Amino acid sequence: MIKVLFADDHEMVRIGVSAYLSAQPDIDVIAEADDGGSAVKIALELKPDIILMDLVMKEMDGIEATEKIIEQWPEAKIIIVTSFLDDEKVYPALEAGATSYMLKTSKASEIAKAIRSTHEGQSILEPEVTGKIMNRMREKPAVYLHEQLTDREMEILMLIAQGKTNQEIADELFIALKTVKVHVSNILGKLEVQDRTQAVIYAFKHDLVE
Predict the structure, then answer these.
(1) Which of 36, 41, 139, 206 is the most exposed, having the fewest neighbouring CB atoms within 10 Å of its CB?
(2) 4-aspartylphosphate-modified residues are where (predicted)?
(3) CA angle 69, 29, 59 (to 5 degrees)
(4) pLDDT tens, 37-81?
(5) Domains delineated in the chain
(6) Reported pTM
(7) How far apart are the C-alpha atoms of 80 and 7, rounded to whole Å?
(8) Is the torsion defined by CA of 55, 56, 61, 63 positive or negative?
(9) What does the radius of gyration of the chain's CA atoms come to, in whole angstroms?
């Protein structure tokens, strides 16, 4: 079962989405939070597999909550689920460490799919978000950190950008899963990013992938 924490200050949204997710055979909503502060406390206590995080909440917003969770638990997988596509929301959320970014206009089935994909190590971004990232990053001067990557590391970065998990990469390249994890760690270090999502953003920024 994929254990999920859902943080959203709208009770009806929590009730509706949680009911749908809990009806799935592989998803269990183990806790809910109605503000960012509670989300941080519960996340660090229960260590759920996935955290669904709203952005605009009372007392502490989703961006600050994401930062605090990632600061104390870097392995956390956080999916932003929000109505906002504003630049001042999208970029800070991803920079804070969010793994995926979904809109509340998405169907409940799409959120369930995003939970499964994120749990498997993929990063899910709405097409509108991807477009914003590409446009913004292309406006900035390139810093060619990727020139430090070996041919194998570049190959793995391309596969990460395709949304492949570590196991899928290992199977495709006929190498051990442990070896893939070492390469991924090296890639993140050389690109000076914190997670796979930011590595993919870097790849888009430098036109390394279509």
Answers:
(1) 139
(2) 54
(3) 45
(4) 999 999 999 999 999 999 999 889 999 999 999 999 999 999 999
(5) 2-135 (3.40.50.2300), 140-205 (1.10.10.10)
(6) 0.64
(7) 10
(8) positive
(9) 17
